[in-house]
Every structure is written in C-alpha cells, then in structure tokens.
Amino acid sequence: IVIATGMVYTDWGEEVLCTIPKVVGSPSLEDVRPIGLVALMRNILMGIQNCAICKVWYQTGVLEETTYGSVIGGGTDSPRIIQMCVYEDGFLHLQNSADANFDKKRAYDTPAQTMYQLGMMRLAVPDEELKLDLKLGMTSMTMIRNAFGFTKGIKRGGIGAIGRATTQGARDSGTKYVAFKDPFD
User: Fold this and answer.
1) Fewer CB within 10 Å, N side or C side of the chain?
2) Nearest one of 167, 30, 43 to 107, comparing CA atoms
3) Pick from 155, 182, 166: nearest CA to 133
4) Distance, CA of 114 to CA of 165 (rounded, Å)
5) What is the DSSP letter of 88?
6) Could you count the other beta carbons within 10 Å of the beta carbon of residue 100?
7) DSSP calls for 95-132
C-alpha cells in the first residue's frame, strides 16, 4: 500500500536514538555510538527497496569500484587484504609505505537530506522511491532514550527540522550514504 499510494504510516515516524558506549566508563559524548531504532515494518520495507536498488547498482556497475560498505559483495575484508598486500610488498622490497585509515565519525547523520537525495537521483533511483524516502524523512521524529525515559522529539526533515536524513540502525542508511559518497570515491 505504501509503495502503491506513496503514503506513509504516521507511526513509522518515531525513531528512538539509543546511546551505546564505545569506551566503557567514559562520560564523554565523543565515546558514545548512537544507534537508531525505527519501526520494524518501515525497516523491512526500506530493506526490500534498498536490496533492489543495490542489485541494480551491482548489475550495472554504476558504483565506483572502491566502494566496499553497504553494497553487494562488499565488506571490509577486501580493503584489508589490499592493505596487507601493500605492506608485504613494501617489506619484501625494502620500501617505505604509509596509509590513511580513519573512522568516519557521524557519517550517516552528517550529510544533509538534500545531499542524499541528489546522490540517489544521480544513481537513477526511481522517483517513487525518492518521494517515499523524502516523506519518511519529513515525518520522522527522533527521540533520545535516557535514564528518565525519552527526550522531546527532534524533527529531522521538512520545515523547522535539523535537515539530517538518516538513522544509524535504519536499513536504508548505508545505501543512502553510498549514493552520497560515490562521486567522491
């Protein structure tokens, strides 16, 4: 019904942000990983949609070949193997080597909603999917779980919102981030 009509269920808009410590015992917000919990049916629908999108991207070869995360056949094993081969080659041939390896802090929630939309348009995601994604973003309210319950909801998309588009923990976040960063790869 959601795909056929383009209408989203109102109870799909609630997102609960849970904080999981990255460094045990640290009180610093820098040492916390936010994980978003979204409505199960929303996550299932977006997961199905995004599997189809990723399949088309894989079959057409439209993504930059150095894209490893959130794609079919991707993962951290390939870049790690390449990295180890470079280290071993440098060792065997007595050559110095250096690398840059970094954690993209707040990767999913940093780009603006419009940047995700533009990335997906560039990679030929169907208009119906883009409209559905936009509606979900505009109706979402993120609440942060704390020791006393939940904070007041923060609007993520639409008028009066913070303008950030994805939830770490939502099934569609990885695909959106791949679409956003593909031109930079």
Assistant:
1) N
2) 167
3) 166
4) 8
5) H
6) 4
7) ----------TTTTTSSBHHHHHHHHHHTT--HHHHHH
What pTM value is reported for the model?
A: 0.74
Q: Please state, in angstroms and as integers, the Cα–Cα distance from residue 118 to each residue in 10, 40, 125, 129, 163, following that order.
A: 25, 26, 10, 13, 14
Residues 118/138, Cβ–Cβ less than 8 Å: no
R_g of the chain computed on alpha carbons: 19
Q: How many helices (H) and strands (E) does the chain have?
A: 6, 5
The residue to which tokens 């460094």 are assigned: 23
Q: Are 145 and 137 in contact (CB under 8 A)?
A: no
Banded model confidence at residue 104, pLDDT cuts 50, 70, 90: low
141, 15 Cβ separation under 8 angstroms: yes
Distances (CA, A) of 164 to 41, 121, 122, 124, 137: 22, 17, 19, 22, 9
Q: Which SS3 state, helix, strand or coil, does residue 58 take? A: helix
Segment 26-70, tens digit of pLDDT: 888 788 887 888 888 988 998 899 899 999 999 999 988 877 777
Q: Kindly state the tokens that stand for 171.
A: 């099934």
Pairwise CA distance, residues 49 & 14, whole Å: 20
H-helix segments, 23-96:
40-60, 77-92
